[in-house]
């Protein structure tokens, strides 16, 4: 038994070394996300959309480092589950971004938690969605840094090929 435990520990230690370095923030991607936010409504100020985009990329970079992300994200989940990483599950990302952005008090945007495959242990996934004030989740922009191990994934909810999202208004943040 000790021999198998030792092998597991060594394998986990070696694989845990597959750390993801925090992605450099591409100004092209920042601009692309900003334009996507502006596309939600013609009344969204360009400056606010740009600031939101910068804030999201900035916080994603911080969390990638803080969570000591590894690739692929499912392996990182394993490391969290066995106690070799403290955080980095998809809901850690969505909660941290939600709390951070909610404190910023944007005048044009709201932030909501969303989930896919809710209740299915190995398949449940959580993310953040940005909508214009009074907008619906289906009209929003998904913010999902977990999916690509800290490399920010974003798209319109309706354009996401991987998940069918639902609003999770009472899940709360931890």
Features:
single chain, 174 residues, alpha+beta, 5-stranded antiparallel beta sheet, 5 helices
Characterise this structure.
There is one protein chain. This protein is an alpha+beta fold and 174 residues long. The chain has one domain. The chain is 40% helix and 15% strand. It contains 5 helices and 5 strands, in the order H-H-H-H-H-E-E-E-E-E. The protein has a 5-stranded antiparallel β-sheet with strand order 4-3-2-1-5, with helices on one face. A hairpin with an 8-residue loop joins strand 2 and strand 3. Helix 2 crosses helix 3 and helix 3 packs across helix 5. The radius of gyration is 17 Å and the shape is globular. The termini are far apart. The mean pLDDT is 89.
Summarize the structure in short.
With 174 residues, the protein is α+β, with helices and mostly antiparallel strands. Helices cover 40% and strands 15% of the residues.
Count the domains: 1
Q: What Rg is obtained from the alpha carbons, in whole angstroms?
A: 17 Å
Query: Biggest sheet: strands side by side, in what order?
Result: 4-3-2-1-5
| Derived structural class | alpha+beta
Q: Low-confidence parts lasting 5 or more residues at pLDDT below 50?
A: none
Helix count, per DSSP? 5
Find the count of extended strands (DSSP E, 2+ residues): 5
Mean pLDDT: 89
Spell out the helices and strands N to C: HHHHHEEEEE
Largest sheet: 5 strands, antiparallel
User: Given the C-alpha coordinates, what overall shape results?
Assistant: globular
- Rounded to the nearest angstrom, the distance between the terminal CA atoms is 37 Å
């Amino acid at each position: 038994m000790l021999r198998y435990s030792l092998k597991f520990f060594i394998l986990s230690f070696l694989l845990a070394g597959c750390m993801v370095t925090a992605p450099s923030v591409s100004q092209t991607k920042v601009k692309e996300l900003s334009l996507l936010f502006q596309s939600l409504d013609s009344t969204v100020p360009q400056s606010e959309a740009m600031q939101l985009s910068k804030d999201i990329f900035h916080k994603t970079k911080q969390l990638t480092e803080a969570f000591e992300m590894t690739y692929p994200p499912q392996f990182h989940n394993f490391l969290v589950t066995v106690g070799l990483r403290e955080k980095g599950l998809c809901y850690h990302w969505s909660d941290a971004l939600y709390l951070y952005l909610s404190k910023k008090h944007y005048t044009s945007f709201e932030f909501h938690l969303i989930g896919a495959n809710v209740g299915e242990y190995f398949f449940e996934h959580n993310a953040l969605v940005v909508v214009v004030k009074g907008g619906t989740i289906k009209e929003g922009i998904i913010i999902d840094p977990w999916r690509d191990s800290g490399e920010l994934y974003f798209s319109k909810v309706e354009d996401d090929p991987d998940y069918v999202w639902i609003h999770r208004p009472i899940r709360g943040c931890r």
